[in-house]
Amino acid sequence: MGRGNMKILYMLTALVSLWGKVNCQCNSVPLSLTASVSNNAVLQSPGYPVTYPDNQACSWLIDAGRSGRHVIISGLHIQLELDYDYVTIFDGNTLSDTILERFTGVHSGRWLKSSGQYLLISLVTDYSVAAPGFTMSYFAYDPLSPHDANPACGDEVYITVGETYQLASSDFPDSLIQGVRCDWTIRASGPGRIIGFKTLFSRFQDSFDDFDCHTDRISIFDGTSDTDTLLGFYCDKLDSPITRTFYTTGHLAHVTIQTIGNNLDRAFVLSYYELTSASIPTTAPPTTVEQVTSICESTTTLTIANGEEHFITSTTNWPLYYEKFEPFII
Ligand SMILES: [Ca+2]
After folding, report:
1. What is the pTM of this model?
2. Structural domains of the chain, with CATH
3. How far is the CA of 73 from the centre of ligand 1 (A)?
4. How far is the centre of ligand 1, averaged over its atoms, from the C-alpha of 108 (Å)?
5. Neighbours of ion ligand 1 (CB under 5 A)
6. Ligand 1 centre and the CA of 214: distance in Å?
7. Range with the lowest mean pLDDT among 217-226, 246-255, 301-310?
8. Is residue 190 a contact partner of residue 196, using CB atoms and an 8 Å limit?
9. Ligand 1: distance of its center to the CA of 85 in Å?
10. pLDDT tens digits, residue range 60-99?
């Protein structure tokens, strides 16, 4: 029986057994969400990752907070009943605004940027056959405030307490070109202050095996040059779940970006801010990342210390498809 015939069978079943039954969990008014300039938030469809309900017309309005900012969606994974259930993303705050994308079926690892302050997301499902739905991360990209998020290579950036700053790849979200090398020095307001960094968006799909960032990477140094202590680096592939936070020991930081890999699709947004060492969260993520590879059907013991944050993914390819295992028979 073909997929279409299966759907007709479901339709008949629904008509016979569920006539008049509407399981509506969504409000017709969009749920308002505010995107942060300092953190990613996660939005998921009702019931995710099991199944969404039938007969839904849900919508979510994401506000970047003010004019000049943009809503960035990343890590968008969608599993919908093909051709019958839809996610539509509008470039504005009404259902009559321009459609950025309309999804049905399965999509993985997508990202989108609003042209203005708002992004409206709509989920419409019909009366039978459900699927997991969608999950995505979102934040507000502010290219101008408090400072230019794209300072010229070699610039010194002065920051003050109480603001969140962003540093983005040039022409974000367009891709960086190969062979870029840029350095920036960031100065907090004075001794006794430190600087915290984290990634909001990182698209470095250079190599699935490049977990150590040998090619494209953003590096954070504890001082004013790349000869100072390396605090850590970011080279996360599209949709990496790993968002590490690095803290300087003093009020100076040096950031470098290098792109020498062959991949043409790379971009990033960092957020950073000034704080005192006493205000570092006690649950700060680790400043190094250890990759543990386990073999299926064996058990791996992982040890974590108090305050550490670890991530488990299915494979190093995550969130792309895992590799097919072929039994080897002689
Ligand atoms: Ca459906």
Report:
1. 0.79
2. 27-140 (2.60.120.290), 156-279 (2.60.120.290)
3. 24
4. 19
5. 81, 84-85, 125-126, 129
6. 45
7. 301-310
8. no
9. 5
10. 999 999 999 999 999 899 999 999 999 999 999 999 999 9
